Amino acid sequence: MINQSVENAINDVVSNTINTKIIITESENIREIAEKCKKFFQDSDFGTFEYIQRAGRSNFKVVHKSGINGTKFLKKFFEKMFTIHLKNYSIHTISNENSLCVIFR
Question: What is the pTM of this model?
Answer without folding.
Answer: 0.84
